[in-house]
Amino acid sequence: MKKIDGHLHLVQVIAGLNGKGRLNALGNGEAIWDDGTKIKLIPDGWGDSNFTVNSALKVLTENQIDKAVLLQGSLNGYQNYYTYQAVQSYPDRFIGAFAVDPFAKNYLEIVQRHVEELGFRAIKFEISEGGGLHGYHQPPFRLDQDARVTKIFDIISQYPGFTVAIDYGAEEQVSHQPEAVTHLAQRYPDLDFVVCHLSFPNVDRLDYLKATLQQWQPYANIYTDIAAIQDILGETTYPFVKSQQVVTLAKEVLGAKRLIWGTDSPWSATFNCYDHLANWLEESQILTDDELADVLYNNAEKVYFKPTAIEAVRQSRGK
């Protein structure tokens, strides 16, 4: 069955930043935050201190993954231009999103460059308290109210086919704001919104997850990816029973046509092997064949690989 990994990260250079400080490469796929916290960022065999486009292609090919959506995050550090280069080199395999820090002095110029010159038609907002903007910017801000962020939305909404991916962290974090996504979907009906990680589900709080999904249900331009839910739920036993439970709920409320499979590799592939992340949905049998086709391929193709996005990539070649 055809598959698009709807949530993948390239790491040309480890440049992470969050509340723990800067992330520094140690080799052997490991890295250390400024506060002394060590992590295993890259799986064995994928790269010593990076995860390059060639390594990504090898992983995708070995696992029979047709395409991938390249997103940004504070964990790895923004890899915007490397993502642009990857998409230019392999337009049939990759599409990419860029990220910008709205607290940067020249953030609007950065947005304009990536949209107008480099042809990006997707942006990633990593605002989580644990791993994103709320970990190193205070006071808290809301995506649907902050004047700086509104200026970004006003720019990107002028370009047909734009997609906004959002990671706002877990329920207990100040950055968690599912209602902001609802307001943005109302305000910008021509934008598609993808909430990453199924809004950080908790099997002990399925009522809260259901209420969140019901809030989005009336808005056809809100999708959610199911990347890294195994990490969030603390699962390492294949085929991930808790993950099956939350995806079943999401299918019942939103429908399979609004769910996007992804892995959040390379980091997530250090907790569960990529083969398991790639095949657990088929193994679980919680989706029909038609639903699998949508979740594994069709939805990401529709949301990210739009003709307008592909054309923008083509026109930006060589910049």
From TrEMBL:
Q: Which residues, if any, are the signal sequence? A: none
Q: Which InterPro entries does this entry report, sorted A to Z?
A: ACMSD (IPR032465), Amidohydro-rel (IPR006680), Metal_Hydrolase (IPR032466)
Domain of life, per lineage: Bacteria
Ranges for the Amidohydrolase-related domain?
4-305
GO MF annotation: an example: hydrolase activity
Listed A to Z, the keywords are: Hydrolase, Lyase
What this protein is called in its record is Amidohydrolase family protein
Organism, as annotated: Fructobacillus pseudoficulneus
